[in-house]
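Case study.
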Amino acid sequence: MDTLAKHFEEKINNEVTIEAKDWLPDNYRKTLIRQISQHAHSEIVGMLPEGNWITRAPSLRRKAVLLAKVQDEAGHGLYLYSAAETLGISRDEMMDQLHTGKAKYSSIFNYPTISWADMGAIGWLVDGAAIMNQVPLCRTSYGPYARAMVRVCKEESFHQRQGFEIMLTLSNGSEVQRKMAQDALNRWWWPSIMMFGPPDDNSPHTAQSVRWRIKRFTNDELRQKFVDIGVEQAKILGLEVPDKDLKWNEERGHYDFGVINWDEFWNVVKGNGPCNKQRVETRKKAWDEGKWVRDAATAYAEKRKARAAESTMKAA
Amino acid sequence: MSDKVNNKPSEWPLWEVFIRSKAGLDHKHVGSLHAVDAQMAIENARDVYTRRMEGVSIWVVDSRFVHASNPDDAEAFYEPANDKVYRHPTFYNLPDELKHM
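After joint prediction, the assembly is written out as follows.
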C-alpha cells in the first residue's frame, strides 16, 4: 500500500474526518458520489408525491405545514448536491444522470399518493425510515456529507411529527377517516421497510461502506430497529400493521416480521414502479421549461454588471 | 467548502455561504450554492440556509476566490506550535494564594 492510501486508512480508523482536499481512494470518491447524489435526487423527487396534495390540503394549517416540508426537501437536495460537488462532479452532470435514469433515487417515491392520509403515512413512515438512515450519517467519514446531514436531520424531525399528527387526527376521526389512515398504512408499510435497501447478504456495497465508515449500520440492522419502533407507534394510532407474521420474539428482543417481497423492490428499482416514468418526466419537464428562467437570470446579471461598469466609468 | 470548482460553462458559478447566527458572533461557513451573481447568491442563501431564523447576516464569496492551505503541508504548517506550551497560561506554576491572575 502506498503512503497516501495508508495515511487515508489511518484517518478512517482513527475517526478523523476526511475533507475535500485530502487524498481519497478512487472508489471511496465514487461510492460517495453515487450515495450522495442518489440521496440528493431522492430529496428532489421526494417533493413530487407530496406536492400533489399542497393545493388540496384540508386546512390552511396543513397547507402551510406541507409547503414548509416540501420546501425543506428542496433545501436538503441542495445541501447534498453541493456536498457531492466537493468530490468533483458538477451539478449539471448530476441533473443529467437523474434525467437520463443513470442515477437512482429512493424507490419509495415511485408509489402514488392517492389520498390525504398518504401525507400522514409518508411523514410518519417514509420520513421516519429516512431519519433512521440519516442520523448515523451525521457521523459519516466524509466531512461535507456529515455536515449536510446534521442540517438535514435537524429539520427532518418536524416532518415525521407532522405526519404522525395527521395519522393520529384521522385515526381518531370518523369511520371513513380511520379507514383512510389504515389504508395508507397498508400501502406504505412494506415499501417503507424496503427503503433500508436489500438484505445484508445481497447488498453489494454495504461491507466496504461500513469499513470506510460511510455507513455505520447495515441495512438489516436499521430495518429491524424501524420495525420495532414502528409497530409500537402503530399501537398508539390504534391501526394494524399489515403483516400477519409480525410477532414479538422474546429471545431476540425484537419483532419477527414477514418475508419482504424483494421482487417488487427490484422491479421498482428497475423502473417499473407505478410512477417511475411520471416522476422522471416531471423532473425533466421542470428542468426544460425552467430553462428560460435560467437564461433570463443570466442575461439580467450580465446587464446589471454592464450597467455597474458604465456608472463607474461615468463617475471616473 | 468546495475545493474543485469544475463548473461547465452553462452552469452558474458556485458561492460559499457564511452566516452570522446572531449579533456579536462571527460569520461561519454553512455550505455553498449556485447563483448567477452575488445578489442572487444572497437571496438564494436566505432561502436555502436561513429557513429557521439561523442567521441575521449573510456573506457570500465566489468559490473561485477562496484560497486554502494544503493538507499535505499540515505537518510542517501546524506542528511547530506543538512544543510551545509556554504560550498557554496553564504552563506557569504559581502559588495558590496568588489571586486575581
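Observations recorded in class. The interface with chain A takes residues 1-4, 6-8, 10-12, 14, 30-34, 36-37, 39-40, 47-49, 51-52, 68, 70-71 of chain B (CB under 8 Å). DSSP finds two helices and three strands in chain B. We will return to this complex in the next lecture.
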